[in-house]
Amino acid sequence: MKRRTKEQIRKLMLTIGMSIVAVFWMMPVAAGFFTSFKSNQEVKMFSEYKNIIPRTWTLDNYQYVLNYAALPIQKLLLNSFIVCIACVVFTLVLCTLSAYAFERFDFPKKETLFWILFALSAIPNVVALVPQYSMYSSMGWINQLPSIIAPNIADVFSIYLIRQFMKGIPKELDECAKIDGANELTILRKIIVPLLTPVLTMVAIFKFSDVWNDFLWPSIAISTPDHYTITPALNLLNNAYRDTGRVERSLASCVLAMIPTLIIFIIFRKRFLEGLDITAGIKG
Amino acid sequence: MKEATEKRHFHINRKYLIPILFLLPQLIVFSIFNLFPDIAGIYAAFTKWDLGSTPIWIGLNNLKTILTDQSSLFYWDFRWGLENTVVFVLITVPFRILIPLLLAVALSQKFPGRGLFQVIFYVPSLLSLSVVMISWNYMFNPNYGIINTYFHLGTLSWTSQVPYNWIALIIITVWWGTGVNMIILQSALAGVPQELLEAAKIDGANATQRFLHISLPCIRFPLSYVITVSIIAEFNVWGQPYMFNNGGPIIGMTNSYAHQSNLMLMQIIRDVGFKGSFGSNPGIASAMSLILGGLIVVISIIQVRLMHENAED
User: Is residue A281 less than 8 Å (CB to CB) from chain B?
Assistant: First the structure.
């Protein structure tokens, strides 16, 4: 009995302690969110009012941001969607095909090729930065969306993940289908891919959020507002609004930019969080 | 008989042909868009190159300039950029491991609201760099920011005063990077065999001893993964100081070159490569990225070996 109360006190302490940490942890996001509904005057008076939650709520900032003609946020979000979805589709197709080749076929030097690819893909992107720029500019791709899609497609780590998962699918399934006269592509499409759904979802989610958040390369490759993606464009929006002292407008555009990733996170929360530990190769 | 061998021969070829066809799209895309720029980048490090013209081979001159030529701006750029980056890595990474580890340990206990806390601590990792920086710029704003107001710090400038600029950047980076590490460590801790922990408990080991002698050795692979990935991520740091204080305050002058407190190597590479005050110098930028890249490769090799070892377990 005594041990049980002790245990319960411990749980209570944990909840309280974690709640305090959590409040601090969420502060930047919460403050940003609420401030995006404040008027400029209220933002500037914060040191007097000390109110995180707006006294009077206003949608003015959102209206302004959505109608800001120099960098139309709708267009930026659309560009980001196009880029992310293209990257996800290409990655899934190419990586599934190669994972299948590595896992279900034998050919000379298979493992060597795999680890060579793995090692080559570990060359940091920074090395390729300048040549990448000159290559795309000679291809006429600078300021075009393909320039931010192409370098994100070939993803050896995704092959690794899909391959690890494919190991768990019994080979007997393929052989049965082969006896029934199915060719390799049909086997992959009809039998393997449906069973790969968990790992493919995970690869898709990671790719989407990686590309959505990509900053360095897009900020170099794209310099026309029409082709900006949201993450580098937010920086420019922020510069524009900061210079005029309108931080609440920057924050409103941040809230808009956050919505897609948050929706995806909420829908796929379980898979997202589970996926992370497969990433670490813990389950081997 | 002859027909049979021929058939077998054909069969073997076909056996290799199919996987190669499956691999081909990936190999083509990888070679053009990833491998070729990498090789060109390594080559460019040994050339004098203006974007648009043909690079001219100059051997080790670029590397000599950035490593030894004290009269060159690039030497100081590189040196200070690397110093700043290494300092940043050394200070940030321990926090990026310890804080997620503490949270993961706490979240492995059973208590009400556990799932919600997990989501709360993970959320920052979902945000893009610009969202993170805009939110934190507001938090640290000297005139109407949350932190200065609530902690009564007056108009303390987090962006331009040493060491506050470092403290702010470290808080931001740790906050941003904690989520992923925490989840990985949490699921690693969940995989520690309960029997071992129970047995140790019966033998009289306390919670700290159980953690140090049982849990920690059990999670050594995920832990080493988290450490290497964090080190690599922080060597690439660029966006936080860029958006926070664009390199930060000048803390010294050498040969009339300004030493900026938070100017990271990545940002220098970007500036030298694309828009430097002395015009762009892709050869020098490539030489700098070669060294930074080399450092990262060394860390990656350690990680790949660990993964390899782990996969074979």
Answer: yes
Beta bridge partner(s), residue B254: B257
Render pLDDT for A102-136 as a digit per residue (tens, 0 to 9): 999 988 888 999 988 988 887 888 889 888 998 99
| CB contact (8 A) between residue A184 and residue B22 | yes
What is the mean pLDDT of the segment spanning A127-149? 91
Q: Does A98 contact B at CB distance below 8 Å?
A: yes
The answer for A 64-83 residues in CB contact with B (under 8 A) is none
Which of B42, B143, B144 is the best residue to mutate to test the A interface, defined by the most A CB atoms within 10 Å of its own CB?
B144
Q: In this structure, what CATH number is given to the domain that contains residue B172?
A: 1.10.3720.10
Is residue B91 domain-resident? yes
Q: Does B191 touch chain A (CB under 8 A)?
A: yes
Q: What is the pLDDT of residues B110-119, one digit of tens each?
A: 888 888 999 9
| Assigned domain for B138 exists | yes
User: Which residue pairs from B170-173 have beta carbons closer than 8 angstroms and sit at least 24 positions apart in sequence?
Assistant: B170/B88, B170/B91, B170/B92, B170/B95, B171/B136, B172/B132, B172/B133, B172/B136, B172/B240, B172/B244, B173/B88, B173/B92, B173/B96, B173/B234, B173/B237, B173/B240
Residue ranges of domains in chain A: 2-64, 73-279
Residue B41 lies in a domain: no
* Cβ contacts of A29 within 8 Å, gap of 6 or more: B123, B124, B127, B135
**CB atoms B40 and A128 under 8 Å:** yes
Task: Give me the domain span that covers residue B207.
Answer: 68-243+293-312
Q: At what angle do helices A269-279 and B114-126 cross, to 10 degrees?
A: 70
Contact B81, B89 (CB under 8 A): no
Q: Please check whether the domain covering A73-279 is classified as CATH 1.10.3720.10.
A: yes
The ipTM assigned to this model is: 0.87
Closest CA to B67 of B297, B252, B288, B298: B288
CA distance B136 to chain A (A): 6
Contact of B275 with B245, CB cutoff 8 Å: no
Number of domains in chain B: 1
Whether residue B95 is contained in a domain is answered as: yes
